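Discrete fold record:
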Amino acid sequence: MNDVRAGFEEKVFPHFSTAQAALPFLTQHGSITFIAAVTAHAAMPGTAGIGSANAAVAALVPILAAELKPRRVNGVSPGIVDTPWWSFLSDEQKAPIFAEYAAKTPVGRVGNADDIADAIYFLVANAFMSGEVVICDGGLRLGG
């Protein structure tokens, strides 16, 4: 239960409070983009706490899109992405983890920050997208 509580406190509540804080500054055609994760869409053992929090973030997207219209709310669910978040591991420790996930991913690699930035840009730039969560995981959720 501590994992679930921590996941909500670290992931769900900050998305909610950030959206609330941004509302006064958004024009009627403004856009909010949430970041969930592939664990919101795929059963990955060992991720019940953060997976349920990511699922909650993803579930907020269409609800808030309907409530905040005409403002747009969308989300991106990344897979494994090589970012500074992994800096708690040495390169030698990261390499086998990334290799394992790359082997499970149809595109044959883990993501990078540009992959996720491109997905976010797509959602922000497309004025006809609202209430959608784009899964940007290289196909990891397919269970390769």
Remarks:
- The radius of gyration is 16 Å.
